[in-house]
């Protein structure tokens, strides 16, 4: 490497973690915090909606499904756009869209108008999450990437839990509209701060000479050293001009991409079915709205704790084994949860452990998807994997009422719910077996970090 050139990955990996990187990760945390809050809001306000509008559980399914379908559309559309024109602009537009959509939802007066607005909101939510995951991954050194990205992504599950806690306080005082007003005002208020402080992706800038000056300024803020006259390059060799989507299936990635998508589908199927329908299921079982919201919040709260603890394990023993064991453990707890419906403390503990295993492991899947693809398709890889997860969330949330009714009892319902979690664990296990077969196109699972 010439003294007048440098690789962006080597710069970030060799430098100490700077206050500037902490700012970037904190901004990503705040974005996914409000993303999680707005994503889960419909589930927490569902019992109040049913009471005010006289709805049957099945009549809420379109509102659940529309928001999650919007998430899928946003993930599919915004990922390739972000890889083409830059992550920051797409992120700002996404935050604007879901902020306006959530605020407008507070003024809906029918399930039809709420359903349409949830779709619009979902488009913005679907664009923000994969972009934040990509940015936090790129600004983290390899030796601390798992835990730093985890802390950033944990804002999502923290936002889900915060939604339950706030809903329990706000709905009795101000009604369900108050929850949505908070969910819309906060991201809109954040936009000027994001426009000012959030930088562009370092790898996106490194892949284009026209961003050279901006990239040098960012690197100087990270390292505290001058890079005047230095050309900063991406670590990857220039890719052939292809659609970003094609990179998901070439160079030996096709099977692994499909396995990753299956794991995403199963994980988010269970996660969103629970966050959407657990409060209603608990209310029908005799709990009041406040207690139902608090128990429902145990899913994302467990996910927040699980994401951090599992990330520490994954940094040491690799992601695949930890993820497979986490899903298998969650499946066992899910199968036992139906027997605890009459014990609120035992039920809350079980729901916490489900969140720990399922939502906590989801963070690992997010990071795996961010590291499997080249710069030219990184946001696309993350967003399309998440889009497959969104399709699982749509199926889970829209079929929730039918599954609850068809199961007949909570015991049978939770037995059924354990099946897709086992399937996700199997997909991760096969990914692990493939990862330990080194090839030119696909590196083996990284060795444990000891730093």
From TrEMBL:
Q: Which Pfam families match?
A: MFS_1
Determine if RNA-binding is one of this entry's keywords: no
- UniProt keyword annotation of Transmembrane present: yes
Q: Which PROSITE patterns match?
A: MFS, SUGAR_TRANSPORT_2
- Where does the chain cross the membrane? 20-46, 58-78, 90-110, 116-135, 147-168, 174-197, 258-279, 291-313, 320-341, 347-372, 384-407, 413-432
Task: Give the top-rank taxon of the lineage listed in the UniProt record for this protein.
Answer: Bacteria
Key words, A-Z = Membrane, Transmembrane, Transmembrane helix
Q: What CDD domains does the entry give?
A: MFS_PcaK_like
Protein known as: MFS transporter
